[in-house]
histidine kinase
Amino acid sequence: MNNLKILIVDDEADIALILKLQLEDAGYRTTRARDGLEALEMLAREHYDLILLDIRMPRLDGIEVLERIRQEWPELVVVMMTAHGSEDIAVEAMKKGAVDYISKPFSSDDMKKRVERAIEYNRTRLENERLQREVEEERRKMEAILQGMAEALVAVDRQGLVMSINRTAAELFGVDAAAVHARPVEELLSAAIPADRLPCRVVLATGEPCLDVAYDLRLPGRIVPVLSSAAPLANAAGEMIGSVEIIRDISALKALEQEREDFVSMLSHDLKTPITAIIGSIDLVKEGRLGPVNPEQSMYLDAAVESCAEMVDMIDTLLDVHRFEAGRMVTTLVEEELGPLLQRTVGRFEPVARHSGLELTLSLPGAPVTFLVDRKQFGRLLGNLLSNALKFTTEGGIEVRAELPENAAAAAQGITPGAYPTERLPREGRYLLVSVSDTGAGIPADSLVTIFDRFVQARNRKMGKSSGTGLGLAFCRKVMDAHHGFIWAESEPDRGSTFRMLFPLGTD
């Protein structure tokens, strides 16, 4: 109660003095005003925590002062004082905003208890008002967020009746929010799936979130593809009182997917067909059917055929990456012996390596190794890595090494952080490790993860080389994912690069 100030307003000096002594003895600070007008002047000059206000006073009575206080100082606590027998007037004063009243003559204990109670009541009232303001502010913020969402929001109760929808939902469904209140959610969400499979209904049935459900909404005159997720709504006690479903219109995404399909179709037909025609025409010229061809001309024709082959290979890589992402790439895993597969692919690149003055070597385990693999995909995977190694290596050599690590977790320690989820990394089991190492300029450390993304290339800092589509390593990652394996790169500036692949071997 320290530093609490009380203003005593009473025209009777002896009563005011008694109140002053008793209150100051209880630890309050007090000031006296002789009438209502003086009290208003004092309230205008300084702050008080409580005012003891006599009802009957000259110039301005207590009721009139109370009305002024409620208008100008609404947070001030007012306790009325009235003569015995005038309690009805005091009750009327309480209706106008007084917290309590004291009847004269009064006991010291009763007066102090009423003062303490009035102050505590006012503290509680002000705290409640503050909390209510905060709640209202948060409600308005949440309302603004929900109304400003690009996604449609539908909240339902435990019976599946609509409690509220946001502005986006109202516009999407073409309804008024008030008109759909308390209606079954199925009437609002007319979907091409059974009603019990709507995410909000699944949540009500299971009590668990239902995420990323794609379905078509049947709206007047159109079908809208959507991606929807729902979560439980809980009260303060943690009890589920309903669910809320967030619905995203994915019409634009579907249109983009169709455009991508059209583009891929164009690549596979409209581009490959003329390239095939070009290669056929060049072959006719090379064979001399259109006249004699000298060695220099033949060299240029070979270069043209090689460029066309590179273009076809790039188109095939793009198509294969698209097939992997669309889930249409068929991976046929067959038990194959590792040695012949590696020897066949490495053998194709030996002439190119010799022509570039590079040494290409192959190291195999002492005993034959068989593993489940898609022969064609493995050949292209290794071919991409060797092609990159040859492209970025000007001196030294390239080594392809296969081994059976004793500890899978140790072998996987070189995997770049962030390349795979931690829980997916191998910890035990038998694996085949295939590595392609070169003595080129290396790969910047900040590119070791992103180089396996589509259309991403690591710029060789030393040589400034950056050519190709940026799809080759993306294809390699897709192949390793299809084989339930891992691929990563290890590199240091000016010390070359090593690409490692871990293939699971299963159990004996």
